[in-house]
Model the fold of this input.
Amino acid sequence: MSKVSKGSAKRRKGAATPATPDAPSTPAPGRGGRAQQKLDTRRRIRDAAWALFTELGYDGTTTKAVAERAEVATGTVFVHARDKADLLMMVMHDRIAATVDAAFEALPRKEPLLPQLLHVFQRLFAMYGEQPLVSQAFVKAFPGASGPNGERMNALTFAFLHRIAALVRDAQVRGEVGSDIDPLAAAHNIFALYFAALLSWLSGFVTLTAALDPVLKNALALQHRGLRA
Done:
């Protein structure tokens, strides 16, 4: 056999045992495990922060105490939240998201726009009322919130605005709202009234119950009159 044929034989011999197609996917369970571990760590930090905020108050809670309660290093907390304010955004994001989803799922679709809006905001005010001191800290910290969880809260707010805009658009279809109204602009006005009612509660001018009714209820009724066809 010539040197060339010997070389060819060696190459054929090496080619006879290719890597199996499944080989590249072998590390996948490890990646999935790390991702799940990160989610579990985030959940522990979120739950620890919520527990301490409700037990000690927002001002009385430290990131070190959150780390100890979650059984993680203090530095790990800062992987998931930039600071204590961002931790507050983390715990409130999931509570608000769940409340909004539940409110829209149970929305009285056959009712006019005003009762629908009151239905949604009643659910939110009830959620705030479960832990009023934590909720007050959130309302105070939310404007201008930054950090990864602050950005998630901003995205959630933007999505909420679009869900309100969809209610306005449906009311237009029913002939209840003028066709010349921009639904998203109307949603921004409605949200501003909602947040102003929360600020009136935060400032101590009214109770949380009164912030909803009559403060927000009357403001929404006036807004609704301006939207009519």
The two ends are 95 Å apart (CA to CA). DSSP finds ten helices and no strands in the chain.
